[in-house]
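Field log, afternoon session.

UNIT: design team B
ACTIVITY: writing a sequence onto a fixed backbone
BACKBONE:
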């Protein structure tokens, strides 16, 4: 699909609405036909980065993540007030995002330009990836992806890092970075941490034989943060002068 007109705002939501509501959203996510002002929404189950795929702690089955594109902030407000799913998500945490850059392509987000705004390398930034997996490539994806998960989870530049999944093929990541520079250094394997090239190595393997049918990375600046997740609020740094939240705090890397 293509966005109707210009997209003003994206949002990313985390909440614990309970198993029934979470599963219902996975099976039948909101659409532009059912929610006024919505362009597209991806409803997914949050996952803990770095945890074993067979570990119960990885799969947050009573929680829900939603990434969405909207015509306006007022459309988000109406959704959170007037719909059952919106009211469930309103009890959690969400950010409202202004789009900056896109790499790759996922058809659900057609219409986004490659570049929509300048990125201040010393300002906080939010990154979202969305991918549709090639099912025969899932074992390779897990093998090469797990080191990257641990790299991002433990990176001192992130204040929140998580993955999310919708059966059978959709996987996403959501990361909040203290600065865009730290995110870029991680991507290119230049971080001053142990084994900094884990992401770069995985990208070489992906280029050799792609894990995905579609894949995109989207960069945003945060224009609003609401609520709390795992006991934390103010997850997005308000300026580059703030220190990132320690990874040992509740919710970090969840």
């Amino acid at each position: 699909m293509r966005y109707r007109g210009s997209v003003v705002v994206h949002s990313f939501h985390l909440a614990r609405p309970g198993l029934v509501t979470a599963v219902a959203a996975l099976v039948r996510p909101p659409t532009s036909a059912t929610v006024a002002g919505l362009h597209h929404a991806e409803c997914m189950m949050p996952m803990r980065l770095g945890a074993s795929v067979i570990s119960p702690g990885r799969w947050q089955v009573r929680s829900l993540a939603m990434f969405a594109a909207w015509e306006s902030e007022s459309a988000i407000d109406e959704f959170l007030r007037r719909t059952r799913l919106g009211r469930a998500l309103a009890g959690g945490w969400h950010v409202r995002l202004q789009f900056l850059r896109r790499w790759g392509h996922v058809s659900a987000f057609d219409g986004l330009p490659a570049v929509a705004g300048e990125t201040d390398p010393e300002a906080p930034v939010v990154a979202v990836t969305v991918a549709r997996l090639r099912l025969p490539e899932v074992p390779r994806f897990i093998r090469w992806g797990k080191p990257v998960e641990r790299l991002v989870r433990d990176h001192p530049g992130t204040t929140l890092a998580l993955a999310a999944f919708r059966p059978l093929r959709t996987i996403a990541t959501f990361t909040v970075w203290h600065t865009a520079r730290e995110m870029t250094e991680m991507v290119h394997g230049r971080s001053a941490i142990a084994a900094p090239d884990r992401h770069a190595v995985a990208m070489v393997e992906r280029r050799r034989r792609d894990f995905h049918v579609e894949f995109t990375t989207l960069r945003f600046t945060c224009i609003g943060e609401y609520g709390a997740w795992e006991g934390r609020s103010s997850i997005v740094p308000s300026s580059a002068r703030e220190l990132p939240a320690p990874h040992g705090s509740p919710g970090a890397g969840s």
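LOG NOTE: Residues 163 and 173 are 4 Å apart (CA to CA).
NEXT ACTIVITY: expression trials, pending approval
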